[in-house]
Amino acid sequence: KLHSDLDKGVGTVKYTLSGDGAGTVFTIDETTGDIHAIRSLDREEKPFYTLRAQAVDVDTKKPLEPESEFIIKVQDINDNEPRFLDGPYVASVPEMSPVGAYVLQVKATDADDPTYGNSARVVYSILQGQPYFSIDPKTGVIRTALPNMDREVKEQYQVLIQAKDMGGQLGGLAGTTTVNITLTDVNDNPPRFPKSIFHLKVPESSHVGSAIGRIRAVDPDFGKNAEIEYNIVPGDGGNLFDITTDENTQEGVIKLKKPLDFETKRAYTFKVEASNLHLDHRFHSVGPFKDTATVKINVLDMDEPPVFSKPIYTMEVYEDTPVGTIIGAVTAQDLDAGSSSVRYFIDWKNDVDSYFTIDATEGTIATNELLDRESTAQYNFSIIASKVSNPLLTSKVNVIINVLDVNEFPPEISVPYETSVCENAKPGQVIQIITAADKDLSPAGQRFSFKLSPEASNKPNFTVHDYRNNTAGIETRRNGYSRRQQELYFLPIVIEDSSYPVQSSTNTLTIRVCRCDSDGTIQSCNVEAIFLPVGLSTGALVAILLCIVILLVIVVLYVALRRQKKKDTLMTSKEDIRDNVIHYDDEGGGEEDTQAFDIGALRNPKVIEDNKIRRDIKPDTLRFPRHRPPAEDNTDIRDFINQRLKENDADPSAPPYDSLATYAYEGNGSTAESLSSIDSLTTEADQDYDYLSDWGPRFKILADMFGEESYNPDKVT
Questions:
Q1: Which coarse location class describes where this protein primarily resides (predicted)?
Q2: For 362, which DSSP code?
C-alpha cells in the first residue's frame, strides 16, 4: 500500500505506478494506493520487480511528492523437484573390485531458492541396485557394496538413483535417474582344456608345413585377457610337430615340421601347454594361469609314389663310347607295406633325351647314340619312376651326365699362319713366336711340342726352337735372304700333344722375304718392288705414279673438248635457228609474205650469214647470239636437235616467254633429199614432183600443189 502525507482522504490525490510489471503483473488503486498482483508469480522466472510510484494532484495533475522507487521481492516456495541434467548415466568398474570402489558421481539440480528454507536441499538414495552398490546421500558418489563381483557371473547392472529435496523429509519433491554399470574384465581365470587327451589322425602323405589338427583351451575372460599361447612340451614326437595360435578363434593349430612315414612310426604322443599372455599380478595366488593336455597322433597309411635313393644323380661317360654302353643306374623303392615293383622311363622333353635309354626294370642308363663332347659337354634330363600296382603314383629325379673328353683332335698352329723375314736377317734371329691350340678339352698340364718335319730338317733356311712352354720360335739359319731368288718359303712344322693317344699334325708356315732397313723395320714386301732400281724410295714411286695419272687426265680432257667443238659447229647460235611465234588476227599473205619472219632462219646451216639480233619480244636488255660451229655432214639430226634443246633448257638467260625455235637443217642421207628450195642448186623447173603422189595420203596436198602449178621463175626469192 502506498500513502502520501498530503493525502487527507478527500480524494484530491491520485497514485500512479510504473516500472517492471506495472499494468501487467501489478496494478494500483489510484485513490487508496493499494498495489495488487493480477497474476501468479514464479520466483524461478523472476525473483524481484523494481517499481516507481508517485502521488499527483487530481486537479492540477502536478506531482505532490517526488517519485519514489521500491522493490517487490518474490518469496520462494518448494515448487520444483530435483532434476538429473546429465542422466541417464553409464559407468564401469573392474570386476573383483573391493567394497567401496569408486564407480561414478551423480548430481541433481533443484531450481528452488537454496538460501530460503530446505526447498533446494537434496538427498540421494538408491531405489534399485542394492546390495551391489551404494551412494553417498550428500555427494551422490556411487561405490561398490559387495566384494568380488565376477564379470563371468553377471556383467551388466542397472541402478536407479533418487534425489529428494526438503532434506529428504516427508513432503519433499523427488527426481530419479538410471545408472548402467558394466563390470570390466580382468584376467582372473586361467585357460582350461575341456579334455585331457586329444586324438588326431594324420595321413602320412601330409605335406610339411600343413595344418593337421586343432585343439582349444577355454578361457572365460574377454579380450586380451583371453589370449592364449600354446607350446609343445618337449618329449616323444614333439620335434616333428609345431603349434601356433589362431588369433581369431584362440585355437592351437598343430602343423607338420617333418614328413611322416607310416612304415617307420605309426603313432606319436606329446603334451601341449596353454597359458595366458597377459597376467594380472593381483591374482597370482589363484594358481598357475596355464593348463596341459595330451595329444595323440595316429599316422594313416597311404599309397605313396616310389622314392629315389638320391635327390640327384650325376654320371660320367667318355665321348665316342659305343652305343649301348651302360654308364650308371638309378634306384627307387616302394616304401609302402605292399612293396610294389617299380618301372623306370625317361621324361622325354626334347631330342637331347634320345641320346640315352633306360632299362624299365633295372633302372640302368645306357648310351643310345655316339656322344661328342665338342658338340654337347653335359646332358640334363629327368627319370620318372612309377609303381606297377598304381602307375599314377610317380616320382621324378634329375640326372646329369658329363661327357669326358677323349684326345681325338690333333693340335694346330695358332694364327698367324704367315710371317716375314728381312733380306738382311742374321743367323739365329727369331722372326716369329708360334703357339698351338687343341679342340679337345685339355686337362691341366697339357703340353705341346714343336719340331720341323723330316723333309724340312735338311734345308738350311729356318729352324724351330721349342721353348717347352707350349710356344716355339722360328729362327733363321742363313745370313741374308734374296727376294729375287725366292720370295716365299714354306716351313712344315709338326706339333704334338701330351694326351693319350698322342695326336700330332703338320702345319705349314708361310715366310715372306721383305726389304727392311738397318733397324729391321719392314719397308716393302710387294713383288713389284723387286724390279725397281736400287735406291728408289717409296716416295719417288708415288710421285711418278701421280704424274702418270695427271697426264692421262689431261689427254682425256683434250679429246673430250675436241669432240665437243665438232658437235657445236653443226649449227650457229640458237638465236639464228629459231624465231618467235608472232600472234596476229589477220590472214597471212602466203608464200610471198616474207615480212612476218626472218626467212634467213630457214637457210641451210652450211651457208652461214652474219649473226643478227633476235627480233623477239623480249626485255630491254639485249641478248646477243652465241656462235656455234657448223655441224658435220654426217652428224645425225636427232643428236643435233637434242643438243640444242638441252642448251635452251639449261640457259638461264633465256626469255621467260614462249618462242619457237626453227630447225631448217634436215640432215644428209635422206632418200628424198632436201624438201626445201631455199639455197638449192637446182630450180623448180628441174624438179619432177610426180613421185610425191606415191608417198601416200599424207602427202596428197603437197603432190597436188607441185603437180598442177606451173613453175614461175619470177616467184623464186
A1: membrane
A2: T
pLDDT of residue 334: 84
Domain containing residue 18: CATH number: 2.60.40.60
Residues 427 and 505 in one domain: yes
* 391 upstream amide cis, omega within 30 of 0: no
Calculate the CA dihedral of residues 389, 390, 396, 399 and round it to 10 degrees: 30
- Specify if 151 maps to a domain: yes
Kindly state the cell numbers that stand for 690: 610426180
User: Are 53 and 30 a contacting pair, CB within 8 Å?
Assistant: no
- Domain edge (last residue) among 48, 73, 98: 73
How far is Cα 149 from Cα 143, in angstroms, rounded to an integer? 13
364 inside domain: yes
**C-alpha cell belonging to residue 124:** 540421494
Residue 164 covered by a domain: yes
Q: What share of the chain is helix, strand, coil (3-state, %, to 5)?
A: 15, 35, 50
Question: Using CA atoms, how far apart are residues 423 and 409, in angstroms rounded to an integer?
Answer: 37
- The span from the CA of 641 to the CA of 632, in Å, is 14
**Cα 51 from Cα 69, distance rounded (Å):** 6
Strands 156-164 and 174-184: antiparallel
Distance set, CA 190 to CA 224, 227, 246, 275 (Å): 13, 10, 18, 7
Looking at the fold, whether 399 and 338 belong to one and the same domain comes out as: yes
Helix 538-568 vs helix 637-650: angle between axes, to the nearest 10 degrees?
100
| C-alpha cell, 294 | 595330451
Q: Which residues of the chain have pLDDT under 50?
A: 529-534, 571-579, 604-627, 631-634, 709-717
Q: Which residues contact 94 (CB under 8 A, 6 or more apart)?
A: 101, 183, 184, 185, 186
List all residues 6 or more positions away from 421 whose beta carbon is below 8 Å from its beta carbon.
431, 462, 476, 481, 489, 511, 512, 513, 514
At 301-339, the pLDDT tens digits run 888 888 899 999 999 998 888 999 999 999 998 877 667
**Residue 647, amino acid:** E
Q: Which three cell numbers stand for residue 634?
A: 654426217
204: left (phi over 0), alpha (psi -120 to 50) or beta: alpha
CB atoms within 10 A of CB 671: 4
**Is 717 among the domain residues?**
no
Q: Which helix (H) or strand (E) holds 55?
A: strand 48-57
- The boundaries of the domain holding residue 495 are 412-523
> Phi, psi (5° rounding) for residue 543?
-65, -40
Q: How many domains does the chain have?
A: 5
* Strand 504-516 relative to strand 418-422, pairing: parallel
What phi and psi, each to the nearest 5 degrees, are found at residue 175?
Answer: -135, 150
**What cell was used for 484?**
729375287
Which pLDDT score, from 0 to 100, does residue 577 have? 45
Query: Does 446 share its domain with 381?
Result: no
Cis peptide bond prior to 416, omega within 30° of 0: yes
- 443-to-59, 162, 414, 439 alpha-carbon distances in Å: 153, 107, 19, 12
Q: 521 and 538 in contact (C-beta within 8 Å)? A: no
Q: Which of 363, 386, 404 is the last residue of a domain?
A: 404
Cell numbers found for residue 388? 606297377
Who contacts 553 (Cβ-Cβ below 8 Å, separation ≥6)? none
Residue 475 grid coordinates: 729362327
**Cβ neighbours of residue 35 closer than 8 Å, sequence gap 6 or more:** 1, 2, 17, 26, 27, 28, 29, 51, 72
